[in-house]
Amino acid sequence: MSVTAMLTPEMLALQERVRDFVAAVPRQLLVDMDADQVRYPKEFLEDAGRRGLLGLRFDPAYGGAGLRWPEEIVALEEVGVLGTALGCLYSLVSIVGEAIHHFGTPEQKEKYLRPMIAGEIGVAEGLTEPRGGSDFFGATTRARREGDVFYLTGQKRFVVGAEGADLFLIYAKVEGVDDPKEAMTAFLVERDFGVDVAHLYGLMGTRGGGTGRIVLRDTPVPVENVLGGEAGIGQGTAVFHQMMIPERMTSAGAAVGMGRASIEIAARYADRRRAFGQKIRRFEGVSFKIAESLTQLDAARALNFVVAHAIEAGGDAGRIRRLVSEAKKFSTEAAWDVVNHAMQILGGIGYTNVYPVEKMLRDVRLITIWTGTNEIMNLVIQHEFYKEFKRAAPRGRDVEVDAPGAYFEGEKIF
């Protein structure tokens, strides 16, 4: 691994604990989830909670481990080898937990964050809508206040955990506020408040996580379930921006695990499979794919690790947003390339369910789309770069003047 030399003894110990947990996941659970025979594997979260592997970054006062992003990135890679569905369910505790940990009241943390970390309740996030995905502020879900109760009306789609989760983080606009950024508010909505599952999707991959469309029809939510309480009304935009860190970093970390699992299967196969009198790994067409895959994964792993440290160091929010977007984009695209390389090395047998690479290919295709498509990542990256670049004072050598014609009059016309 490209970052092994930088892992502390504590990180290595955590890595082994997560590997033990991942190794204990029943093979039949993975098979049944992919066959849509299991809709929501609550026992997976319960086991992770019992082992103290959920909510790694959160306050020990609520059951967390009090660790940092670099440790979580190490854990995410190991969970990633299970594929996207279980990786997502694991990550949702980090994602929804981030909102409660940063913005929740002490009462909300006690009521919801503690049992989430213990694996006692499942959580989901309602962000995407039928008329809006990447256009977050185009959301149409509304919250009407009457006294100490908000009534939510709207729909959310592609909700992992629509079937099975106990608690939903829902974004809605408070009626009577014109500016969508000031109206956006985050609500903690229990299933029993009146969350209807209108549709469960038939998915290409990432099956078994209960992904569906939910409908809220004047669903009553007490004001104490506004994230942050009364002070949290209109703070949904701040929640959203904070949430994009775990949304995208969990995808980046798990992507490396998916790619690693696939190329290890292919490398083992290439060292056994013989053709034209020798192992196929002796052929450049195969060995170069393995070399390229290893390089991409090491680069993604190193980028994730550096970004994890940058998040912990804090500083300019725009720069963090850019780096997180880079990590998500690069790691998910690397994983897609690597899994495709693995299938090509396996050849025809890789296209069958004899090996799990075909499942991983179906799974990994989603991660370049969700939590902001990689095209949106490109927009964020260049936007935040220009903001910083244009306000930065010149430093170091001015390389532009090193050209022979640098001072030719009338040539540099803009």
Description:
The chain has 414 residues and is α+β, with helices and mostly antiparallel strands. The chain has three domains: 4-122, Butyryl-Coa Dehydrogenase, subunit A, domain 1 (Orthogonal Bundle); 125-234, Butyryl-CoA Dehydrogenase, subunit A, domain 2 (Beta Barrel); 238-391, Up-down Bundle (Butyryl-CoA Dehydrogenase, subunit A, domain 3), CATH 1.20.140. It has twelve helices and nine strands. Strands 1, 2, 3, 4, 5, 6 and 7 form a seven-stranded mixed sheet that branches. Strand 2 and strand 3 (149-159) form a beta hairpin. Helix 4 crosses helix 8 and helix 4 (69-80) runs antiparallel to helix 9. The model has no long low-confidence stretch (mean pLDDT 95).
Short summary of the structure?
With 414 residues, the chain is α+β, with helices and mostly antiparallel strands.
